[in-house]
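Input set for joint prediction.
Command: fold jointly, output tokens.
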Amino acid sequence: MARRVTAVRWSTLAVVVMLVAGSCTFGPEEGGGDVEPGGPIKVRVWTHQNRSFNRGLNALADEYTQDHPEVTFEFETFDYETYIQTLQTALPAGTEADILQMFGTWTCSYADNLAPVPTEVAPLPDVEDAFFAAPLGGYICDDTLYGFPQEFNIEYGATLVNTGIAEAAGVDVAAGWDSWDAFRADAVAMTNVQDGAITRAGYHFTAADGLSYSFFSLILQGGGQFLGEDGTSFTIDTPEGREALELLMSFVEAGAIDPVLFNDESNWVGDCYFEEACAMGLVGPWVVPEYAGDFPEVAEKTVYVPLPTLSGSPDFVADSGWGLTVSKGSAAADAAWDFISFVTLDAENAAEWNAASGTLPALRENAEGSARDVLVAEFPHFEPWFPLLESGHYVGNLPDRDLLWYDIAYPHLLNALQGAESIDDALQAMEREANESFG
Amino acid sequence: MRCRRWRGKRTSPSDRSRPAIDVGTKRRWFGGREGAQKRFVAAVITPAALYMAALSLLPIIWAAALAFFEFSPRRTGGPILGLGAENPFVGLDHFRAMLDFSEQAPLNVRQFHTAVKVTLIFAFLVLPLNLAITLPLAAMIDSVHDRLKVVFRTIFFLPVLTSAVGVAIIWGFVLHPQRGLLNGLISKITGKVTVIAWITDPNFLFFGIPVALLAIIVAYLWQDIGYNLVIFIAAHQAIPQSVKDAALVDGASAWQRFRYITLPLLKPTILLASVLTMISSFQVFDLFQVMTDGGPHDQTRALSLDIYQNAFRFQRMGWAAAVSVVLFVLVFVISLVQTRFLRSQWEY
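tokens >
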């Protein structure tokens, strides 16, 4: 009996020790890859989870390895929310990978932990000529370049249009619209109302991104600015701000959309459009390949049509999109920059990635000629976007872009559209809260 | 069989008056048979204690410390744990800022006030509703045949086992303005197309409470009542049958038996369930994030969501830590008050 009790005790102890040991992980002591002089080079790469993005990058990594057999890549992917948190904790701790896929607009907030682009890789003036201003903008912090964009992240300028619904409503979208009045009238014509409730919106622009991008782009088109020259203050409660918000309000008043039923939380624009609960929707071209697999019949009827402009100006606000950077503590920095140059500065490779990922090019060279033709052949809905790219303005090095977009602009704009706040109150509140974000 | 001789100290009848443990000698804590047991317990508990200390106690201490700094993981900070330098010590500034109720208060302070209000409304609605449903339900289920009891217990407990995120997604579908089950049902009954934005209309209030918040309460109750129900059924079964029979003989109705016999005797269990329900309702996060993400117009921005967004979305960890300290104090005080108010003196 005593022997049995002893055996049980020792077994229990062994199980407990195994469980505790199993819960421990032993990661690398230092961040970055391994480099021995003249020996194999391992480059760790972190990216967010996007199948087409990563498929394209992996293919380029394989091509690079053929010419550089001493270099091996170790990819690790994270879902979007986890990726943000991983960067926040790993960068100060120094446990990050060599190459970090970065959303351009975040770059300056992590600049302390990132390596500047060596001049021998590409001098800044040459880079500014090669890339569109909007995608590149985020990677330049205090006149220092910290990486290269791979895509032009665009969320304003053209709208998704369901040609089947347009045809049924007797609306001809082929020629576009030369005024907001004409556009609004067509949106109303494509709206479906049953028993006093909108069951199909004519134009869905009231998701968080759509609403914020619309508002700030319209300010630019009206000849205004929302960020001061020195970048240390916001000016939103302005005549241009009022004009922008009144224009957006006019769609609600005309009955083209009910912002209570259609917003970021309910009937999000991508779901709404492809489920044909919206005839038109404001969202970037990335959404089409994302939904085409599940809604092929709607994708077939989908085109993008450029939006009308305010005062004839095609200017719009854009984030600096996804690109690649190198961590400051990387032991394989040379190999990392060489690979990044291979991927982003070589026009052919950059175009290959754009085709694989279904994104618009960040390099000016790839927005024309054969590179553009290849993209349009693969993604016909890209065509209307190309003439707009030169008019993109980087949103600016904001103290906190997500805070401004999702916690300040979107809630107040939506409140104004829903009638919960007056236009004046919304503009004043946005300006005050945005300026508070400077700390 | 020959008995083995006891090889310990011989005791004579006169020795038996001496105590078994001689208090004059030095006690060996880990010696002997008792010591062996203690060594085993220590060996088993130590890894778990270290694990808890590293993953529970340390983070609590770190969060409490962060509450006194303006800390963001994006900034490099000083050499000691990143505190100081660009993450300066601010003392009680965060807590002082929380007391600014003016209209000019910063956005994060106003959101904090909203979050406190939403959390208190949520917790103080969930508790009485939960008890109002589970107590009579437990009495009803306990009154049926034993085989049926098992069936009902299982049915009501199944939602407790469901993932909260799944619950939130399904309820989101039920409440969808165009394709939701609820609006569909109303449309069928009324014969008119019904498009009610249950969780996205900021003007939709019920006795001053946002309907979006009530919707989350309903979803939470749906998932959570099974837990208390099982506890109350067990407690109900523990009430002596003789007490119930005596009440029956005295002519008490079902309601009178419930009101004057069952409820008082369940008081200790009600206290336990109340404290647990209150604590868990303060910690609800997934329903708020998945169903509404704090909207519409921050009407469902609970403290847990406020802490998460400040800490991980906007990297204001110092402020988020201060809010979490406030949440801890709130839960602690309310649990203390509950314990005082509901404790009972009798046993049966």
